[in-house]
Amino acid sequence: MSEPLSTPVAVSMRWYVVHAYSGMEKAVERNLRERIDRAGMQDKFGRILVPTEEVVELKNGKKAITERRFFPGYVLVEMVMDDDTWHLVKHTSKVTGFVGGARNRPAPISEAEVMKIVNQMQEGVEKPRPKFEWTVGEVVRVKEGPFADFNGAIEEVNYDKSKLRVSVTIFGRATPVELDFGQVEKV
Asked: Which of 18, 58, 147, 176 could pair covalently with 142 via S-S, beta carbons 3.0-4.6 A apart?
């Protein structure tokens, strides 16, 4: 029994960046998969990725993990680039075109760039990032509680507990106050 020959198609698959209407990335992924199946071109397409990461945000005082796109408006498609596949992708609903390269001959991105994006997606699943990045020294406004409408400078950030220590000036004195992320907003 002879060994199956590897198909030349698999060797020539490369990653391309497809520009989609913002907020419609998942719909583009679904539409592409349906069109690929209908056209019988499964052998010319590989993976389709919508780069997302999980973020932690406070909703009504409770931590919630939500998905956030870190390249809004972009979908990564692994494919063989020829006239048929180009037309299939280009004429998919909610796709505005390819990114990079010539108008009708887009340039692929490197495997290293794709791996960087996949690793960033994986990191987000293992350790969700906070929705907001706070920095020590940053001035924030208190939205609720006894210090509502006061401004203060962040002295300490605790992402594990979703708390900040903010120095608020009361009667001319700097007073450290511990607040939840949801009780403050960036100024």
From this structure: 147
Name the phi and psi angles at 155, rounded to 5.
-100, -30
Write down the pTM of the prediction. Answer: 0.65
Strand segments (E) across 60-109: 62-69, 74-79, 95-98
pLDDT in tens, the chain (187 residues): 444 444 444 458 999 999 999 899 999 999 999 999 999 999 999 999 999 888 777 666 677 778 888 788 999 999 999 999 999 999 999 999 999 877 778 999 998 999 988 888 887 666 666 667 888 999 999 998 888 899 999 999 987 788 899 999 888 888 999 998 888 888 8
DSSP 8-class letter at 183:
G
Is the sign of the CA dihedral 163, 166, 171, 173 positive or negative? Answer: positive
Give the amino acid at 78.
E
The first and second tokens of residue 76, run together, are 């990564």
Burial degree of 75 (CB within 10 A; 0-12, 13-18, 19+): buried
Instruction: Give CA–CA dist 100/130, Å, rounded.
Output: 32
